[in-house]
Amino acid sequence: MIPSARKGISEQTHRQALETARRVARLLTVPQGGSARLVARVSLEDERIVGLEPAELESSGDGPVLHASEQAVSMVVGTLLPFTRGLGERTVVLSLEGEHRPGEARPRWRVVEARTAEPPPLPKQVADIHQEYRALHESILVEFQEQSREYAILAAGISLEQFAYAIVGGLLIRRALALIELAAPTITSVLAQGGKGAVRWFRNLLVRTSPEDRALLQQLWMKAESQGLKSLTEVEKQQLRGLMGRLESLLSTPLDRRTKQRLWEWSRTEYFELHNPQLARLLGTEGMRSYQVHHICPMEYAHLFPKLDINGRANLAGLHGNVHESINIVWSSLREHSSRLRPQDVKRVVDIVNRHYGRWFDKLYDVRDASTLATAERAALSEVAQLKVLLSR
Amino acid sequence: MPTGSMLPGLDRLMTVCRRHSLSMKLPPPLASAPTEGAILLGEPVDPQLAAVYQHLGAAEFGTLALYGPSTEEGGLIPKNQWLRKRGQVQYCSTLVFGWEPGFAFYYGTVPKLARSQGLQPVVFISAMEALFAVPIASSVDRFFHLYSHYLERRVADDSVGGGLSYVTFPWDMVDLVVQDEPLIEQVRATRFDFLTDNDKDALEWLEELRASQS
Predict the structure, then answer these.
(1) What angle, rounded to 10 degrees, do the helices at A160-173 and A195-206 form?
(2) B90 contact residues in A (CB cutoff 8 A)
(3) Between β-strands B95-99 and B64-66, what pairing exists: parallel, antiparallel or unpaired?
């Protein structure tokens, strides 16, 4: 069990523990003068008790059946409550033994073991994100219980980055991708790969949503995080699928100018801070001013590659502004054909650019290379010109 | 280095940088600073830009940097010559005086669109992928005023996390740009259309400005 920092136990949890204990107690019967044993399995999600699996009673003796006293209910409640201070989905196993002694009105019951069942292994897709997700999940629960029960207020304190962690981590850990699979097959398949890459890909998609959709998604997901996915009503699940469907359709829509501007800015920060801090150190603050981050598949064609994280490491190259300017001349030479380019055409141009300019990717550029750069530009333009002839046919 | 009331937009920009502890560099003016009426690269320099250069050299305000008015490497003259080498209209029709380090985003005055008193509008030149330029301010000081508000909005926005912001320049500043009447007048008269290169983003921006209430 993952311990929780939450304070106290809520009224709702107390009520659930009492109801569960009463159901368990109804199963606690002992033949007069005999003994019995019951193993009960209780399912929990965060602080909530969500179910009691059917349990079998083993008993010996053939006298008339005697029921447990109210004391047994208190005993089960007292045993269960400490287990509610945990996070995530889990099962608590309670082993109880009862015995009826001659001359006594009721059998005596005791708890011989109470433990959390070995949890199923975490999906491998969450290996590098589950810690961030758990911390975030816990902070949402604490906030929910101690500060605000309004989902909009909860969501206001969560950044876009954290929000992406919450949704991707939440769907993977709960193995709940099926919820959105039909509405958003591409999103489902990318998220299924998991890891920080999926989180960032999803964040870069979330940035394109309308403020209204983002607010609705945040509210729905805050409810799922604080109350469990099962708490979503059918209408809310439908809203979630509708939202995911709209996100899915954005994947094949050209990026708008605000999104491009944001992604350009973010790509630079993330490239130099996360992906290639070595180059940042090598360049120093002054040197970095002349270096830009090039999108290997340009933003203009991002919608032709819906699964590509346009701002992912694999699509970024740090290079000198002069090199970037030259590459843009090559891409701009295709301007008149841009709306007709198919994914395979874009890939060909990417290949041409990478072949002629790759030597300057992620490396220091020597301004004395200007003539080599000019030669590379001429060669790349000439290859692209051949492609243009094919496209014009 | 306050400029009195001559350049209130620049004064506001400096105040915003100080108030929010944004990086700022205020080097002294260069001996080569152009005076009002001077000709730079064949065109008259904007009078407000000349006034700025009488106060400051290669100054910086948060994410905005000015080219120092010199012929040294990285100075105003060689940078504009370098940008104009391919004959692209966005550079040949403007004097690029500012940029965002680390990006191919530039700010330039447009001499041929000077209005009365010689004030030149300012355009934003985007060259991260497709090259285009769009109008953002009716004067250099109005541009500084706009940029000061942009920096304030960035500081106020912590919704993304990781030090990133939703607020973009100039796209998220349209509410202020449309209040710049002399600029909107020129936009409605299609004076900036020749700088768009028919780029979708640029055309949409012009449409947005034209659709504003007069």
Answers:
(1) 130
(2) none
(3) antiparallel
B163 interface with A at CB cutoff 8 Å: yes
In degrees, rounded to 5, the angle at the alpha carbon of residue A144 between the alpha carbons of residues A141 and A149 is 155
Q: What is the dihedral of CA A247, A250, A251, A256, to 10 degrees?
A: -130
Pairwise CB contact (< 8 Å): A264 & B102: no
Containing H/E element for A162? Answer: helix A160-173
pLDDT of residue A2: 47
Give how far B129 is from chain A: nearest CA, Å. 6
* Residues in A touching B125 (Cβ below 8 Å): none
Compare CB distances from A264 to B101, B103, B201 and report the shortest one's residue.
B103
Fill in the amino acid letter for A136: L
State how far the Cα of B52 lies from the Cα of A83, in Å rounded to an integer. 68
Residues A171 and A177: their CA atoms lie apart, in Å, by 6
**Partner B contacted by A253 (CB < 8 A):** no
Question: Mind listing the domains of chain B with CATH numbers?
Answer: 8-210 (3.40.1580.10)
A160 — contact with chain B (CB < 8 Å)? Answer: yes
CA distance B50 to chain A (A): 25
Residue of A nearest to B164 (CA): A266
Q: Distance between CA A270 and CA A261 in Å, rounded? A: 14
| Tens digits of residue pLDDT in B46-91 | 999 999 999 999 999 999 999 999 988 889 999 999 999 999 999 9
Are the beta carbons of B161 and A162 separated by less than 8 Å?
A: yes
Q: B185 to chain A nearest CA, in Å? A: 24
**Interchain contact, B171 vs A261, CB within 8 Å:** yes
CB contact under 8 A, A265 and B168: yes
Provide, as residue numbers in chain B, all residues whose Cβ is less than 8 Å from the Cβ of A336. none
Per-residue pLDDT of chain A (393 residues; tens, 9 = 90+): 444 545 577 888 889 999 999 999 999 999 999 999 999 999 988 888 888 887 788 989 888 999 998 999 999 999 999 888 877 788 999 999 999 998 888 999 999 999 988 877 777 877 787 788 888 787 777 777 776 667 766 676 778 888 899 999 989 888 889 999 999 999 999 999 999 889 999 999 998 888 889 889 988 988 888 888 888 999 999 999 999 999 999 999 999 999 999 999 999 999 999 999 999 999 999 999 999 999 999 999 999 999 999 999 999 999 999 999 999 999 999 988 888 899 999 999 999 999 999 999 999 999 889 999 999 999 999 999 999 898 887
**Encoded amino acid at A368, one letter:** R
Q: Tokens 């072949």, residue?
A: A355
Residues of chain A with Cβ-Cβ distance to B165 below 8 Å are 262, 265
Q: Which two tokens stand for residue B111?
A: 């001499």
- Residues of chain B in contact with residue A291, where contact means CB-CB under 8 angstroms, are 102
Amino acid sitting at position B66 = L
